[in-house]
Amino acid sequence: MRGDLKKVLFQHPDKLLSTVLWLVALHSIAIGLALIAQPTLLMKLSGFSPECERFFPAQGGVFHVLMAVAYVMGAINIKKYHYLIVFSIIVKAVATLFLMVYCFAVEFKWIVLLSGIGDGVMGLIIFIALQNYLHLKTTYGNRYIK
Predict the structure, then answer these.
(1) Which residues, at least 6 apart from 82, have a Cβ–Cβ distance to it below 8 Å?
(2) Which of 25, 27, 90, 120 has minimal Cβ neighbours within 10 Å of its Cβ?
(3) Is residue 63 part of a domain?
(4) Is residue 2 in some structural domain?
(5) What is the span of the domain harbouring residue 78?
(6) Residue 131 lies in a domain
(7) CA neighbor of 25 nearest in space, from 83, 80, 79, 85
(8) 117 burial level (CB within 10 Å; 0-12, 13-18, 19+)
(9) pTM (whole model) above 0.90
(10) Is the pLDDT of residue 107 over 80?
């Protein structure tokens, strides 16, 4: 079964790109909901005071949920929403830059560092999956790409 999934994903770059976008969307929904809810234990474990101002983290949570919508739109219809996939890569690059600068120039928190690394990795994976999709589409036309 596992070999079949690997075969399908790597022989069909549209499915690989779509899967990557769905996974990033799930991550964004989870982070978004956590930022909106701001459970005390999670805030403490992340190095933030549970008594902090709640508005701005919640606003960041709403942004994550909205970005999840963009990822899902790209996953559902790559051709129609290709610009959202490019936008997603830009968002991940800007998020990585912001989080790293904040972490090393303003205030070091391990969760900020991990978030920056995670956003960078997700952006890179989306970029590579998109490049693979575009390369095979250019090379083989629509035989592989739906």
Answers:
(1) 74
(2) 90
(3) yes
(4) no
(5) 14-143
(6) yes
(7) 85
(8) middle
(9) no
(10) yes
Encoded amino acid at 134, one letter: L
Supply the pLDDT for residue 145: 57
| Total domain count, the chain | 1
> pLDDT by residue (tens digit) across 36-51?
998 888 888 887 777 7
Lookup result for tokens 């956590």:
34
Q: Which two tokens stand for residue 145?
A: 């790409």
The residue behind tokens 């095979």 is 136
